[in-house]
């Protein structure tokens, strides 16, 4: 007797359950990156500390990207010093990251404000955005210029142009003045400048700001509760501890960060690594 071909073939329930679990598993994507700030290459043993920390920051988690948050090199009383220290910073970063195919971008810090041409020569633009590697364009890294203690007009214009079709990780040197910030207020932006930053971001983009990384204050600080009205999902961090300046709240170190992308929902997890 021939089999009845009119009845649909029923897959075993166990197979369907396994397939469903597999689909849920493969829908989750994790992109790891690292954030460092204030390496101050040129100051005391800043270069040595930076050279020791950076390999630790990328030795685990298959890092896709590294953010450097300004004061990458120290001041320098002459342009010759500044040139040498910029070169040393870039040589260390490139020597460690290039063989691993890990791109990086540096923000400009206050110690670099008076050597902008050299900064651009060695480390690129002071304001901009790029796709975060591994995110297929869903998440963008934005770096801003507030090296002199206020945001450049170009930085504010970029914030005003942010597109709600993307999520963002933002980095700049001076910390914002958020409520309850536990760092030296002489190393924090004014309330007026903080308001200027937040007000520049369009209302329909504010839920897309995943995290703001800042530096300058030689301390560790994080705030994951709402940091400003209208920014209910944004996490805020300070990390100025990747060089010879000793932090007031912990030793030198960096942030391990992970972007979690699942079913078109994006979250960020961040952990301080202190040494």
From TrEMBL:
Residues 32-124 form the Calcineurin-like phosphoesterase domain. Gene3D superfamilies: 3.60.21.10. This is Calcineurin-like phosphoesterase domain-containing protein.
């Amino acid at each position: 007797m021939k089999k009845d071909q009119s009845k649909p073939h029923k897959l075993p329930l166990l197979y369907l359950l396994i397939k469903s679990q597999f689909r849920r598993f493969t829908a989750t994507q994790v992109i790891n990156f690292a954030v460092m700030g204030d390496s101050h290459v040129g100051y005391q043993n800043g270069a040595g500390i930076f050279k020791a920390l950076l390999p630790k920051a990328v030795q685990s988690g298959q890092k896709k990207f590294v953010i450097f948050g300004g004061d990458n090199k120290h001041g320098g009383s002459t342009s010759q010093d500044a040139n040498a220290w910029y070169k040393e910073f870039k040589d260390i970063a490139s020597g460690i990251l290039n063989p691993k195919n890990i791109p990086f971008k540096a923000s400009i810090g206050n110690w670099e404000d008076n050597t902008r041409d050299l900064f651009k020569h060695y480390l690129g633009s002071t304001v901009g955005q790029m796709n975060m590697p591994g995110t297929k364009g869903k998440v963008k890294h934005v770096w801003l210029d507030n090296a002199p203690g206020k945001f450049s007009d170009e930085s504010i214009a970029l914030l005003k142009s942010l597109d709600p079709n993307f999520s963002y990780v933002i980095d700049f040197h001076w910390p914002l003045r958020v409520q309850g910030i536990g760092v030296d207020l002489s190393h924090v932006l004014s309330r007026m400048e903080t308001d200027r930053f937040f007000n520049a971001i369009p209302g329909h983009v504010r839920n897309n700001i995943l995290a703001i990384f800042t530096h300058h204050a030689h301390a560790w600080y994080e705030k994951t509760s709402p940091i400003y009205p209208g920014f209910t999902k944004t996490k805020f961090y300070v990390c100025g501890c990747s060089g010879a300046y000793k932090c007031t709240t912990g030793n030198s170190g960096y942030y391990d960060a992970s972007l979690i992308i699942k079913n078109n929902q994006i979250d960020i997890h961040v952990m301080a690594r202190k040494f």
